[in-house]
Amino acid sequence: MNFPENLKYTNEHEWIRVDGDVAYIGITDYAQEQLGDIVFVDVPTVGETLEAGEVFGTIEVVKTISDLFLPAGGEVLEQNEALEDNPDLVNKDPYGEGWIIKLKPSDLSQLDSLLDAEAYKKLINA
To answer: What's the predicted TM-score (pTM) here?
Structure first.
């Protein structure tokens, strides 16, 4: 399983990567493996400003729908449009082509409370 060092992680299995003044958010390799084959990703919050921990969308697999939680507050700028036709990109490349949203973070200090790769590994192996 893959745990990139340049990301921050949540207890709910989302990751965040800041690139300039934009952050990319997705679900972890562990989460996509636990969920199984992803058939649909829904992000109705594009254009909205949300707080850390709020639901920004859902992921649908064959048997269930799971909420997606923001690791940091800010404005949801866009959804990864490639997921409309290929939601399985989240399964194939969760940290790359399978990113879910771009966010304009309102407060980068919120990232300080998130898990680093080592702490996330301990969480899922506990």
So the answer is: 0.95
